[in-house]
Specification:
7 helices; Spore Coat Polysaccharide Biosynthesis Protein SpsA, Chain A; disordered C terminus; alpha/beta
């Protein structure tokens, strides 16, 4: 497998960070570097990272940590982490994800290897509680600029074959380092968060690359947890502002694409559970053992 760097964002929510990082100990692909970005956590997150780094080294994972005393935002946090990444491929994960397949990185890497024009491939994001509905399998944009999470609320096995997508959310994806070097990092005009990942996907496609979703690879996602409760972020305002910027930039593309209808972009309510209500251990790969 080509070398991979995984960037994980943390802002408090230590129990989620622990579950996410524990799942990475099962990842079988090597060489593997994990870059943890601690965005001003005030809870037990630094202690969780201390404990995890020792365990990571025991299983041949290179740990790197960036610590900021204040929350510098998801976009700048990831961009700073990119400077420390050594991998040929770079994965993004939020700390409210759990990787339930030991070979998830190998599968996504093989996908990129087989498609030289592919800038990134995203896995199927699944809600980590029964009936394990799909949260997202890539994203789509209507002709008016509304965003659809593809497959949201569908049954877990609703999609079988990989397919090309307009864009993807960065809660979990694997991208080529060379594409970052070609088109640039996430645009901090969208700081602190929201729409920067969709923008990066459109920039990649404008440059001639393709984006894909692979439903055979699954990552559990608690959704809207990593940045939730950030008192210094007005999410309603930021989302509205960044939505307008995204539409201004990319109307030249999405208005002429075969995207979904506005009706298909309607946001469906999904039952929500916290990590305290879900057995995180039950989400881990069962065919491997770790040093935990």
């Amino acid at each position: 497998m080509p070398s991979v760097s995984v960037v994980v964002l943390h802002h408090n929510k230590a129990p989620y960070s622990r579950a996410c990082l524990d799942s990475l100990l099962f990842s079988t692909g090597r060489p593997l570097q994990i870059v943890n970005v601690d965005n001003g956590s005030r809870d037990n997150t630094p202690h969780v990272l201390d404990e995890w780094e020792a365990r990571a080294q025991e299983v041949g994972i290179e740990p790197v940590r960036l610590r900021y005393e204040e929350n510098i935002g998801a976009i700048r946090g990831r961009n700073e982490a990119l400077k420390r990444c050594s991998g040929e491929y770079i994965a993004f994960l939020d700390n409210d994800t759990v990787c339930g397949q030991a070979d998830w990185l190998e599968r996504l890497s093989e996908f990129l290897e087989a498609k030289p024009d592919c800038a990134l491939v995203c896995p199927k994001l699944v809600f980590p509680w029964a009936p394990f509905q799909i949260e997202c399998l890539g994203a789509a944009v209507s002709k008016t600029g509304r965003i659809q999470y593809i497959g949201r609320g569908d049954e877990r096995d609703a999609f079988q074959e990989p397919f090309s997508i307009q864009c993807a959310i960065s809660a979990a994806w694997l991208a080529r380092r060379s594409v970052f070097e070609s088109i640039g990092d996430l645009d901090e005009a969208f700081s602190p968060v929201q729409y920067e990942d969709l923008d990066w996907g459109y920039r990649a496609r404008e440059a001639g690359f393709s984006l894909w979703a692979d439903p055979s690879v699954e990552v559990f996602h608690f959704e809207h947890t990593t940045t939730a409760g950030s008192s210094d972020i007005n999410f309603r305002y930021v989302t509205a502002k960044n939505s307008l910027e995204f539409k201004k930039r990319w109307a030249k593309m999405f208005t002429v694409e075969n995207g979904p209808s506005d009706a298909e972009c309607k946001w469906g309510d999904i039952e929500r559970k916290t990590i305290e209500e879900v057995s995180a251990a039950s989400l881990l790969p069962r065919n491997e053992t770790s040093s935990s």
